[in-house]
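Sample pair:
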Amino acid sequence: GAGFDMCFQALCGHDFRGGGTGNPPLWNRTSMVDFAAGLIGAVGVLQHLFQRARTGAGAELGAGLLNAGLYLLSELVQRADGRFEGAPPVNSHQTGYHPAEQLYEGADGWVAIAARGDEMARQLVDALGLRDSVMTPRSAWGEEVAAAISAAVRTRRVAELCDALERAGVWAEPCCDNGERQNLHDSE
């Protein structure tokens, strides 16, 4: 039967995961379940074409929205005791799930920072001048470290911050409010 992306996001739990800890649910407007169903369908077609070339046999293909919605939760693993583990939920500010990988507000806009691993996290701390205040390893970072990073980022212009983080070997990009237009017309 027919389905609607928004309803299947809700049914599969994406809305509460996207809303962030303690927040109301938040719908992902990208219609991600629809897109995932299309991708799953395309993979099925490719598999069928391969099978038909080898055997000549036909096949019936289905790519349901429920399957696609559950596929998008594939970062979760169910343990033997029934608990699910995987990607942590989004924080209550809806800016990320770990202080080393989230959005921060700069002096003139927002920036996405992703410091994967202990070495890159240390490079982030050093680039922000927080070496003396952030001594714990990345795995132990919590709200206090997020607040320290936020305070350091808030004083800097986004372009200057991104340049400094790039020199330090930390992944960062400005949050663009016109990304589609800017990237589609980028001639570089």
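The chain has a mean pLDDT of 91.
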